[in-house]
Predict the structure.
Amino acid sequence: MIAGALFATPGAAFGAAPASSSVDVAAADSASGGVAIAVSSADNGTATAGADLVLTVEISNPGSDALSDGTVEIALGRDALTTSTEFDAWIDGSSAATTTVDTVATATSPAVGPTSSHLLQITVPAAQIDPSLFDDGWGVYPLRAQVTAGGTTVASTASTIVWSDGASTAPAATSVTVIAPITSVASSTGLIQSAALEAFTSDTGVLTRELDAVFGRPVTIAVDPRIIASIRALGSTAPASAVAWLERLDAAPNPIIPLTYGDSDISGERQAGAASVLQPTSLAYALKAANFVNVSQIIEPAGATDAATPTPSPTPAGVPTLEQLLSWDYTSTAVAWPRSGAASTADLPFFAASGLTTTIVDSSQVTAPAATAGGTADLDATALVGDQRVLVADHGVSQALQDSVSATSETRKGEALSQLAGSLAVAAGAAQSDDTAGAAPSQTLAVLDRSAMNLSSIDDALSVIQSRSWSTTGTLDDLLATTPTQTVTLTDATEDEQRVAQIRTLLGSEQSVDAFSSVLSDPQVLTGEHRADLLALLSNSWVSNEGGWSVAAQASVTDDQKVLASVQIVEGSNINLLSNQAPLPVTISNELPYPVTVIVHVTPSNGRLLIDTNDEPITIEAGSRKGAQIPVTAVANGSVTLSFQLLSPSGVLVSTPSPVIVNVSADWETWGTVIIALVIVVVFGIGVLRLILRRRKARTTAASATQDDTDTDTDTHTHTDGTTTDESPPQ
């Protein structure tokens, strides 16, 4: 909140102009307690001889304790800043920025309560400004504001003013190319979900605000292709607001270049050991043919024009190809834009090998060659690092531009715009005094950081660029068409070791999933989604949320482990083999939502058991189990340990379950057969013997009966009357 305002001049506050004094300062020294001070000058950092210097000072106290009343001091430097190195050192407050300044005004600052702010307007009359302060004539001069309370400097800030004495001439205008990113919020999914797209592209959504801020303005758009692909992948089900946003992007007259997919950390990829810049391989996993019936060309382009895409991958019929999903009429697809301050010399050929032959680097990492006679050897916007082409983003201009769009108050924005005017004046002046610059207009590149998702204030910055005589807006085409003549040295930057180690783990995990995917008839249904998710996880938007990124990265590795364990041989118990030949049962489970084909390879620990048929392919349907039979032959009795390996058809090891012990007792079958045969023989023999004995007995009985009949016939007499008489002895 604004606690109040104080209007003061040196004369009004002190009755007379303060005496000039020389003070050596390390610029922009932020003091304890979180108290901050900002200073902006009228007309966004320009001043002329004979005119009052009007300044606005804002003192902010975000702490819980009140800031006591004190003094605000305004000081100007005597020596003009003539190179970007001097300018950056003054603004950044580095030790190299020790500069002599003279106090030109002081004013009393009232107490500032907790979580409050206070504004002061300080006017330095022209008559009280010592002309000797600007002996260098037209140029950029240091401006310092600091607040003192209780005898201690509690906050200090460094800015600049561009001074015109009316006698010297401003340098020729430098052509300023501005590049602004359009990215989404951090996530771990390769495609932005429909609900999120609807929110992002609503009237107040982040993507709408970003595009509205730069549409039709002299700004090059660097867009994340993931946004375009996410909208197109939804086909006819894409939210109407998202389709309208895509159509508006298509209608934008701005130059447009692509970031890498997901705005991935390409320097981190190289430092972690990637073979090339990672690109999406397939998005077919998210496409449904029913969503691509009679859709507009903005959703399903007829063909790619100049899209930065990898080699097209097979895609199911009826849906757009990866090339179509990523297709756009880009101004150039050869520009790599690693995160500011993250590039190293070894990155450049790595990028170039993937088709990114021009790399944007920050000037704070670049050293110009030694100055030539009469020249300052300031940096050109296009240069060579070895044989690699780079676009050098002016650190001071870019930082001022960034600060102006992210400022939280009008005073802070005014301070940033003053610094923008000063940094552009330094760039123009350095180019004019550089012998190698020639007659052609100088060029300056300014880039906005990925965190600049609120670009609503960019018009104010563009107005400063276009309204100053020493700067004008330029185009990316002109910058890319310029042949570099300056060879510079790039100071290598290394990313945080823990971050690189985590990226290395993610890359290793992806390699394992890629190898595992050979169990699928179409591996890209698995690897395509995994690669897209990985690129989203490597997004530069995660850098500001290190803790959240670590959690998301570990969750990704854990999910990969689950995928790798999704196809397994179900653990079984030990086996007793009682025959010479038998099939060993094996059960395989598949937890993936896709059918898989695997090979079971069995290796016995000794020669007691032979595997009759090995390495037969087995197909298991999605989310199911299937049994298999492995025929074996026993050679000798004893214990055999069987080692199982589950392989993909291409020979990739998928699973190694615990060994199974087989107790071979094949003689039991032989002796059992003999015993059973003997039993059968004995039983059969007994049966035959009984039959023989029974038949003998039957014959004996029959013979005895026949003899009895014969005897009976002998004892019977026939009488003449036809009767018979039995004369056999009585029984």
Notes: The chain is about 30% helix and 25% strand. The longest helix spans residues 667-714.
